[in-house]
Amino acid sequence: NAGVMQNPRHLVRRRGQEARLRCSPMKGHSHVYWYRQLPEEGLKFMVYLQKENIIDESGMPKERFSAEFPKEGPSILRIQQVVRGDSAAYFCASSPSGGSEAFFGQGTRLTVV
Amino acid sequence: GQNIDQPTEMTATEGAIVQINCTYQTSGFNGLFWYQQHAGEAPTFLSYNVLDGLEEKGRFSSFLSRSKGYSYLLLKELQMKDSASYLCAVRPVGGTALIFGKGTTLSVSS
Fold it and tell me: Rounded CA gap, A42 and A51, in Å?
């Protein structure tokens, strides 16, 4: 049973470009969470999704960021018109239900140059 | 809102015991988690407490006091591979996403 898969592991984008980060949850998991981690900072919650629904996006910046978890395929975190401050590690986690422990992927390290 | 505090750094030697404290102030509480994160890697689940008391799992134990808003992670018989960041996280009432502290970086030396 493969764990949570994120790709790419490393992503370099120029300012103004778009970044797409993908997350495939563990088999049987229908709950996905996205977190951002800056150097020397803790994991900051961004968004919580179930299949085809955004449940909680209270941690998402109001502009340029969006997330989806379609019926088929991975969850996508999309960042439009990236800026240097978006450089961070983005982690995805999944769980089989809303109240259980979450399992994390290896993360995508985004660098904006 | 939520506020979670843990020491930034700790050091210890192989074979020793170390206790990493975590205090939290939340508008509601529905469980406390500890995760381990090695540099450049994914956080991995260590323990979960929802009731007061001590949960033991091998060399690792976690304690919770809800009335004091306090938890600790106890690591026994330290090994070099235990050098990592240890993240305390709270699940607020009515929510499912975890709120993380900044983590405690533990360095184990020989």
Answer: 27
Residues of B in contact with A4 (CB under 8 A): 42
pLDDT 10s digits, B81-102: 999 999 999 988 776 788 899 9
Alpha carbon distance B55, A77 (integer Å): 36
Contacts of B110 (CB under 8 A, 6+ apart): B13, B14, B80
Contact A56 B96 (CB under 8 A): yes
What CA–CA distance (Å, rounded) separates B96 from A38? Answer: 22
Cβ contact, residue pair B100, A44, below 8 Å: yes
Q: Mapping DSSP to helix (H, G, I), strand (E, B) and coil, where does residue B94 land?
A: coil
If DSSP codes are grouped into helix, strand and coil, which group holds residue A85? helix
Q: Which two tokens stand for residue B19?
A: 């206790």
